[in-house]
Amino acid sequence: MVHLTIHHKTTYRYREPVQLGPHRLMLRPRESCDLKILSSTLAVTPTAAVTWGQDVAGNSVATAAFSFPSATDRLVISCSTEVELSAAEWPVFDIAAAAISFPFRYSDEDQIDLGALAVPQHADPQGRLASWARGFVLGSATDTLSLLKDLSAGVSGALAYETRDDEGTQSPVESLERGEGSCRDFAVLFTEAVRSLGFGARIVSGYLHDAGDGLVGSQGTGSTHAWAEVYLPGAGWVPFDPTNRSVGGANLIPVAVVRNIDQAIPVAGSYAGKRDAFDGMDIEVRVEAS
Prior knowledge:
Layout: E1 2-25, E2 35-45, E3 48-54, E4 60-66, E5 71-85, E6 101-102, H1 108-114, H2 128-134, E7 142-143, H3 144-158, E8 160-161, H4 172-178, E9 180-181, H5 183-196, E10 201-208, E11 223-232, E12 236-241, E13 246-247, E14 252-258, E15 267-272, E16 278-289
Parallel strand pairs: 8-9
Antiparallel strand pairs: 1-4, 1-5, 1-15, 1-16, 2-5, 3-4, 6-7, 10-11, 10-14, 11-12, 12-13
């Protein structure tokens, strides 16, 4: 078990005072049997009325509403959370006997509940992604976990890692064509590849704890990160981090699980003012062990 403190600070700068609209915040980690939240504080400047709720996937979502009129040239959103992470470093997954070998069939109930999570969300008109994913299937009865591990490693082998701060994510086909991408591109490629094989999968956004300072995607004392989870009967949702070719959540702190990466934006909102009023944004993330 490791005790971590996560600091996430986002600062928006404007060239002149603007009126802030409501902002949607996804910054609070998801509690589970492997992750316990000890404390969490959220501070917004200028002062806002903050309400909490959950989205359709059960992610914690805060809405910050600013008083009107209340013009400002700076918005600062800070979240500090203490957690206990107890995920095993070398996990053993109790996969149901019927799903140990691929291909397998989800139960009718599971298939209904997985719904769109088991259907590719990006166009693949030439079948390139599906063909690429099918290349990892070694025979008519392939070990399921080995297949998923090979696919995760295959994503890392197909793409060179790049740090990209601009908004947006590449399509899986674009990633294969470019041969490089950020952690969110790795996660999307892996998720869509396993969906093309019939697996139920979701994208996860959160934080990466890098105690040894040797993981890909880690920046200094911590960073935001993206990976994937695949649903396997018996074992449940199994984390795969294709950026680091790892399985399990020993160094991963999930904040949001989503069907599409665009649904996991940590901070999203609007302002009323001149179109060119926005001057820039700074993000600081620290994940510290104590």
